[in-house]
Structures are given as structure tokens and as C-alpha cells.
Protein: Transcriptional repressor PaaX-like central Cas2-like domain-containing protein
Amino acid sequence: MSIASEILEELWNTELRYKGVRVNLFGIPRFSKYPQRSIRTTMDRLKKKGIIEKELAGIVLSKYGKEYVKRKYDSLKQFENPGNLSKDRTLLVMFDIPTEKKSHREWLRWHLKKFNYVMVQKSAWVGPYPLPKEFNQYLKRIKLDKCIKTFKLDKPYK
Structure:
């Protein structure tokens, strides 16, 4: 996890503060493992992008920053491998995801591996039928359903 991700995560769930910085129960700042210069540089970059802003209470997420973090959390939603999938690989999943959504493409490949799918080509995978229902609903929500085609195979893939 990058320092920027950790800073945004801390500002997203800020509860205990001391001088505007989130601290643990003992009052120790969370970012003590990073050099001060790295923290300052990262904070300046986040401020320049409009993700964070300074207030009297300290540093907080801006309105844009809250939307940005929410999008990041949503795009990284994780699904567990349902144990009730068949062992036969009878579903072919093919996808063509635009380069603007490269992170979504990597996310999809990671989940297909997690669901015991095997790569035939980079954008063609074979695995157990069916894909989890919640997973398909999430694909529709993030508008990837139009980029993905599934085919039921007559015989299991070996």
C-alpha cells in the first residue's frame, strides 16, 4: 500500500486526532515509519489535486476527496470463492475491457483466478459454472457487463 493510500484511508475513517493528525490509542501518529519529507511531499501532492484541504481542525478530505476515496473502495470490492461451484470447467468467459479501465481488467483477472478459472488467453478464461450472483450484479453496477461475454460449454475443458 502506498503512502498516499494510507493517508487517504486514515482521513476517511478519522476518529482520534491530536493536532489535526490521526493517532492510535496511545497518541502515537500512524505514519511514524515514513520520513517526514515523504509525508509532506505526499500531502502537498494530494492538496494540489484537491483531494485534501486544511481546516481549523486539521487536514480533512475535501468533497472531491470523499468521492475519490469512495470510488477507490468501490472499485476494489472483494468477493470470496463460493465453495459450491462445480469442479468441471464448463464456462468460458471472454472480455474486452478498454485500456482506460486497466485496473478493472486486472481486478477481473484476479477474481477469475480466485474462482478457480484457468487462462486460455489473456482475455479468455475457462472455469466452473456459474459465476457468483453477487459478482455478476457488481459487474453490472460498475458497467463491465457489456465488456464480458460468457458461454456454457457442452464438454468440460481439460
Q: What stands out?
A: The beta strands are 17-18, 21-22, 52-55, 58-61, 89-95, 118-121, 124-128, 148-152. The first strand starts at residue 17 and ends at 18.
